[in-house]
Amino acid sequence: MNRAILLDKRPVGKPTLEDFKFIEEENPAPAEGQVLLKTLFVSVDPYLRGRMSSAKSYIPPFQLNEPIQSGIIAEVTESRNPDFKVGDFVSALLDWKEFQVSDGKDLVKVDGDAASLSSYLGILGMTGLTAYLGLTEIGKPKAGETLVVSGAAGAVGSVVGQIGKILGCKVIGIAGSDEKTRILTSKFGFDAAINYKTSPDLKTDIKNVAPDGVDIYFDNVGGVISDAVLANINQFARVPVCGAISLYNDTEIALGPRLQPILVRNSVLMQGFIMFNYATKFPQAIKQLTTWLNEGKLTYTETIVNGFDQIPQAFIDLFEGKNEGKMIVKI
Amino acid sequence: MNRAILLDKRPVGKPTLEDFKFIEEENPAPAEGQVLLKTLFVSVDPYLRGRMSSAKSYIPPFQLNEPIQSGIIAEVTESRNPDFKVGDFVSALLDWKEFQVSDGKDLVKVDGDAASLSSYLGILGMTGLTAYLGLTEIGKPKAGETLVVSGAAGAVGSVVGQIGKILGCKVIGIAGSDEKTRILTSKFGFDAAINYKTSPDLKTDIKNVAPDGVDIYFDNVGGVISDAVLANINQFARVPVCGAISLYNDTEIALGPRLQPILVRNSVLMQGFIMFNYATKFPQAIKQLTTWLNEGKLTYTETIVNGFDQIPQAFIDLFEGKNEGKMIVKI
């Protein structure tokens, strides 16, 4: 029997295991033109929380009693499609199922020899593209500028900071533990890192390490951390708004200081985005990321959890900051 | 004797007459290379409130016991500078004084025959440039899109709406009286206008006149009006943030719904600006505005108050919405 994970209830606030339902179904068999895919690696991402709500957004909400989807690396185990052979590895948005069929249309082949398979869910996949495109297309970093990254030890954040360094910025990371801030400076080359959980005055702590102010703020979290960064923002600063993980589980709209006066006073640009907005630039971005990776200029961290039955918990753990870098479930 | 108006106290909250001080001084006399200027028209603008605070901003704060400055049209009444002759009209940022001298460096000559002198403080001056450049450079309107303008009956707002119509947008204005909304649709050609003071549910009222959502929101006001517009915002919307008049007099930072989730969910761009950011585009912008004005495609309204001693009150009245269109004091 084949296992699948469905959305059982729309989460209210923080997602719980009760929001998900495991079912068993017949093993799928590929029809003519289809391939059978075996799930190898599953990406769990904060943005999935949005799709679990019924609210209108950039991608349609998940349906109740239907499988959740996310980025998955799978192996072709049976092929009735001439474009794929058994043993091919592919990347795609797929269902949370152990096995599934596909007509091959949205599958992208990945090369397991050129890089680790899981890296195609991370540094060479959505994570790397989000970091690279958000930073370069919206942040437009110039050498010598100061870049602050929140959620800096997360999958996207750690890549953003490294790219900022490659491009000549002073890079400051904000993260939620001393272990994370240590890694940011020692492993990822950030110039400074602040633990927001132990900072007595985040605004002042940022000012101390960014005395010239903040030119680019790559915002992964929203909330009070962003307030403290924006209090240090420079004229003509750019703020790519990538995520707001601190707010995703709120059941009421969170209140915070109104931003318009800060934006006007300093001619600040804030722009929400998803990487799909820049789809025409994917090939160039992946090429650049691969080059930096092969040159040893980029490194990445994965938190790999084992077992199909661990997917919901791994997703829930994102909101507790239990991951370091990209959170992936290996099946 | 010559009269001048100084900043006596930094306003706390709403400015009052007590924040200003009238003084008399010796009549100024131009030295070699200077001209003597007689003030004819004085522009009072919401942004001046920012310069009355000591907070760091895009232009230095006014100093206590020094004259306030704003956009002024003056006449050259004595010239010891070969570039200017008696009877020339000029536009510049000048002191709130009846007479003052200048070395001529920052004076721009204006043609009183081509357009009314006061129009160089409005539609052909800072007002028109702010409207045109904010809308075209940040809002990037496309024909068929829906544009919402707050503070729509104000100096900038009424021009923004008209330019939106010229460029083929559906234009909705938000203003604070039935008289203003009537003028927006009857005189300025807006497709619809909403009186936020009598609207029982601004979010729904906007939705009713903008059923396809809002593609561009030209924000002059901030606060709860902006909340209602942003609740109707479309994917890839652009929000030029021109001002936040509803917030300028707050003594504490106003709280409102956090914007990051809206920005991310819809890939929205918000950008604060002042027209000086686009100084290289002034000549092209003024040319375009003059063309539209001469073609009868643009019209404008001025509220003209008479008398040098009325300048502070005219400024204060801006925050009560007592002006219709550009507020100008004629000396």
What tags apply to this protein structure?
7-stranded mixed β-sheet, 6-stranded parallel β-sheet, globular, Rossmann fold, 9 helices, homodimer, 25% helix, 2 domains
Describe the model.
The structure is a homodimer of 331-residue chains. Chain A has 331 residues and is α/β, with parallel strands linked by helices. Chain A folds into two domains: 151 residues, Alpha-Beta Complex (Quinone Oxidoreductase, Chain A, domain 1); 151 residues, 3-Layer(aba) Sandwich (Rossmann fold), CATH 3.40.50. In chain A, 25% of the residues lie in helices and 28% in strands. In chain A, the strands form three sheets. In chain A, strands 3, 4, 5, 6, 7, 15 and 16 form a seven-stranded mixed sheet that branches. In chain A, α9 links the parallel β15 and β16. The radius of gyration of chain A is 20 Å and the shape is globular. Chains A and B meet through β12, β13, α7 and β14 of A and β12, β13, α7 and β14 of B. β13 of chain A pairs antiparallel with β13 of chain B.
Please estimate the helix content of chain A: 25-40%
CATH fold topology of the largest domain in chain A:
Quinone Oxidoreductase, Chain A, domain 1
Radius of gyration of chain A: 20 Å
Query: In what range is the share of β-strand residues of chain A?
Result: 25-35%
Could you say what the CATH architecture of the largest domain in chain A is? Alpha-Beta Complex
Give the gist of this structure:
By secondary structure, chain A is an alpha/beta fold. Chain A is 25% helix and 28% strand.
